[in-house]
Write a structure and sequence with these properties.
By secondary structure, the chain is mainly alpha-helical. It has 2 domains: about 70 residues; about 70 residues. Helices cover about 85% and strands about 0% of the residues. The chain has 4 helices and no strands. Helix 1 runs antiparallel to helix 2. The longest helix is centred in the middle third of the chain and has 42 residues. The chain is elongated and about 100 Å long.
Amino acid sequence: MVVELAAAVRRSETAGDQDEEGDEAEVEALSASELKSLKKELTQAKKRVGVLSTAVVGRLSEVHEAMTGEEAQALVVDLLKAHLASTLDRAVADHRSAVLASAENWWDKYTTTLRSIEAERQSTAHLLDESLRALGYDE
């Protein structure tokens, strides 16, 4: 919500700047009272985020103090495993995409067999010979 409110305030202020420069902006400019109300709402939302952040940090501290050393170590190991697993999954997916793209590229390049290329070449050479004979260029 804070991000959305901040973006709305920024858009409104930017729209006012663009209007002064003579640009025709699609952004809707807010009146002074609407902008003031929006800024007040943004300030309240930021305060609420601060209060919630403080509460979360306090709760995390309480839980951390209640944990034994082995529990804390197990939690850290679990978090690192989860991060490593997601990193590896992303790397595997990227590699699969690259391999698939290469295979598709090779398929497009080499789908025509040598035999069909030779047959087409022979047919074209025969047509060329006939055309040359018709023009009087006999061998």
